Structures are given as structure tokens and as C-alpha cells.
Amino acid sequence: MLKPQQNEFRELLSLDGLWHFEVVNETYHDDISWTQRVSSKRQVPVPASYNDIFLDTDTRDHVGWVKYQRRVRVPASWAGKRYFIRCDAATHTGRAYINEKLVAEHEGGYTPFDFELTELVNAGGESQLTVAVSNELTFETIPPGKIDILEDGRKKQTYLHDFFNYSGLARSVWLYALPKSYIADATITTAVDWNQNLGSIKYQIETCSDPSGSGTDGRVIVKDEDGNAIAEAEGFHGSIDIPNPHLWQPGAAYLYDVVVELRSSSDNSVIDHYHISTGIRTIEVRGAQFLLNNRPFYFTGFGKHEDSPIRGKGHDTAYMVHDFELMNWLGANSFRTSHYPYAEEVLEYADRQGIVVIDETAAVGLNLGVTSGRFGYKAPNTWEQYNEKTRAAHERGIRELIARDKNHACVVMWSIANEPASHEEGAREYFEPLVDITRKLDPRPICFANIGMATSEKDLISDMFDVLCLNRYYGWYENCGDMRLAETHLQADLMSWQKKYGKPIIMTEYGADTIAGLHSAGVTPWSEEFQAKLLDLYHRVFDRVDAVIGEQVWNFADFQTSLLVFRVDGNKKGIFTRDRRPKAAAQVLRQRWRVQGKGEVV
User: Fold this and answer.
1) How many separate domains does the chain show?
2) 214-260 pLDDT, tens digit each
3) Which of 419, 424, 528, 551 is catalytic?
4) Which residue ranges does the record assign to the Glycoside hydrolase family 2 catalytic domain (predicted)?
């Protein structure tokens, strides 16, 4: 699953911009109905979630399908090539039509899908592209949800994740061309022989060949950051040695350019090539340590969200760069892609900036007990409600996440779920096959984010994972405002996990809702002073527990949620406001991470 790329053999055109837009309020039974002309009177930008762009609540809260439509012209110069369209994301289900023909369907709102146009349109010709997108979630989707029909006939979507269910084409759409024979995929892994100071880049290349063409051969060239070729190898799989390698380090990223070439067997001419930026680094979990380049690494950073005013989950390069600047200002060295895969541009930028990433699937909400506790009723067993189709969707999400992100140096761990009901009967049967699949797909450590109700005594699955990631809210959801009791309970909790498993522990969520500008001399909940004091409390405890190897505050910035009585304009746990203004707690983190250097490599 290679991201489209522009070079002398590959062409790339952005289809971003204004598309014609229509909310679908009826049931279509044939492709002709789905592809009827959409009026140009209502347009929507791509990439962006559509929900907050318009002012009517019917559009914002719409449950079901919408249609995006535009005209697409394949350049005449592309004759003789194969041409495709790629949607970087359609949240949560996408259907693509060329003229009146359905050409692609995809489930999973945060990973891309491609479809070929070569046999459907001619180079130089213009076609109608329609992309239908549904935001509906059920017990058979990831993330899960439930749809009820209200008494007036409207659909109401209930979902179990605490962030707004933004929908639409939130990432870019591309038209691209490839040679008749082309590089379809490439997998890069790296290793280091510390005794000989020798790095290695292992590669596996997959191709798609033109049946009418000659045979092909593979070649790989490695270039340094100055563009100098320093090593090469022949074949579609192998390993290249790099003496005295420049390592990819947190905060000091060095990226080699791995040039994958496809050559004609008849005359050895290059017929396709693809560039992959690669960092040589090693990852190992040893006892209660997480080793990055054979040195203990301490995670400092955040759980984040793709969330900004008006755009919703729409990818925004300016926000992305500014967010990384703010993380650097604080001294953060990492983040988790809570609770779904982020745009691939984010990972590319993390590769370049030396920011460590825990890459997470969209498996959030697999816990019916969260809602029941909130509203005071007894929930059914989670794993009796979700079924084999749910797990199949979950597995597909894992496969697509790893297929897309496997070559990113910044990704050091896969998180396959956030706060599942890991303490309920049936959890192990659900997760064991998913753990096995993840390990077969990639050698990186794996984890999941554990919820507080699944204590070390009750949890049924943590022995299968490499790192213990804990989400805890002592002092907020539990022992609210009681700092002494919160500190006692937090330390007891962490010590119980350390004693039982002896594995590394990362606190992947901790914090409190905070209203920017609300101050209190008495350090009361919701005030900026309370948030700062609560973080100090957690940090004292972390420093007492040897197995704690990381702290990621929830959340980087305030973000939008569904309209609930205890959420006033969204979740306010951000260290920054939604428009990225720092709260007082930012200075607490800056002092700990940057001034004291808590996250520096030992």
C-alpha cells in the first residue's frame, strides 16, 4: 500500500478543492440513482469533515450517506500508462463511482483505498467521479456504534467513543498514473549490529507486471541525506549493510533515501522507481525497559486527536506543523494516534522531526460498561454483543494500518485497541487471534490502552502484550478533587501492575477537564490550577515506580465531542485550547520535559 508519488515514471494530480455536495435522505437501490448529478449550488471543501462547515444542524447531525461529486479529466499525456484514484480516507464507509459504474467499496474510515480507471476512461477524456460516504456505525464496525430510529423517523447514532463522529472526505483524494509494470509495494526493516557498528536495511519488493511486456528485475539503492549513493543491491528481496550508520534518534532524525527500482530484464532500463525515507533504528522490550537504539527510552508527550475548528478531522498542514512546534516547545518526544490512524503526512513529518509514535487502530468503544456506569444501568457482556464480523473488521483495520505505516521509522509500537472491556469474560477469545495476526505482520512491540475498571487483578489479556499502557483518572473521574486519596490509589494501582507483570508501563492517558481562564486559589476542579496540580501529583508517583517508562497526557488540545450534558463544547482536557492557546499546565510539562529533561535518551 504505497502512497502515490510524483517522479519521472509516476504522475500525480490532486483532486482536493471544492466538490459538489449532497446529503442523501432517501434509499437508493441502483447505481444510476447513486450517480445522479449533484447540484453545484452546494459545495464542500476536500479535505475536511463536512459537519461544522454548514450552519444547519440537520447536516451536522446527519446519520447516513452523503455524496461528493466532481468532474475528473485524465491527462492525454497519460496514454500508455495505468491510472488510478486514491481516497486517503472516507469516514467510515466509502463507495466510489466512475460515471454510472461502482468501482470501489471500502469500510474503515481512517485508511486509504485505491481503484483503477484504465479500462473505464480514456486518457484525455473527462468523467464524473462520485464518492458516497456513510458515517453509520454498528456493532459490526470498528469503531462500533448503534443506530436507533426516532419517533419522527430520523436516525440517531449512538457511539461509545468520546470524540465527535466527524464524517466525509477528511483527507486528500488523488488521481495518479503508473507504468504498465510497476512497484506495487515495498517493505523495509532495519537492524544494527552493535558490536561491529553495522546497520542493515532489509527489503522485500512486490511488483505488478504487464503481461505483454518483458520480465523485470529489482534493484535497491541507498542514498544518504546529501543525496550520495552509499550502497546498493540486486533482486526483489535482500539486505544492504550500512557501515557506521547515522541512527534515527528521537529529536535527531536521520533519514536515508531507499530508492527501489524496477528494471527491464531485456535491456536493464529503469521502468519504475519509488523513494522510501528510512531511519535505521532498533526497538526492543527488555524486562521493564523500552530500548530505542539499545538505550532506555522514556516517552513524554500526549494522546492527540485530528481535530480543529471548522475542519473537524480534515487534515490541515498548517495545524500539523504548529502542533509539532508546540510539542517541541514543551519538550515532548512522542504521541499516540488516539484513537485511529492519522493522516500519513503526520507520520512522514514525525519521521523527519524525530517524534516517536504509538500507532493505534480505530478500535475504540469496545466496552459497553463505560456507558452503563455513566447512566447507572447494568450493561450486557461486551463480548456477547460483538461478533465475528466485528473482529473481522478489527483485523482488517490492523492489516491496513500496518500495510500503510510499516515503513515509518517514527512508529515504534502498534496499539490495537483503546479501553476495551479486557476484564470481561470473552475478552481473551476475542483478542488472542488479533494479537497473533499483529505479530505475524510486523516485528514491532504491541500494546493496547487499558481502562481503569480492568485492574491488574481483573484484566484477562495483558500477558499477551509487550508494554502495559494504562489510562487513569484518579483525582478526576475517581476521587474527584481529593488529591491525597488520588495519589494513594494511583501508586497502589501502578505498583500492582509492576509486581504482577514486570513489564514496561506507559501512562497513556491522565489529566482533567479544564476551562481556560478559570482560576481558583483553592485549586478546585475545572480550574487551570487544578489541572497543573493534578499533573504534578501523577509525576511524583511516576518517579517512584521503576516500571513506568512513559507519560502521555490526555489531551494535547481540547477537542469536539458529541452533545452530552457533561461536555460543554467538547472535551476540555487539553493542555492547549482547541485553537492551540496554552493553559497553565503547559508550563508544568515544559519544566519537567524540557528544563529537567525527563524525556531525554539515557
Assistant:
1) 3
2) 788 999 999 999 999 999 999 999 999 999 999 999 999 999 999 99
3) 419
4) 283-594
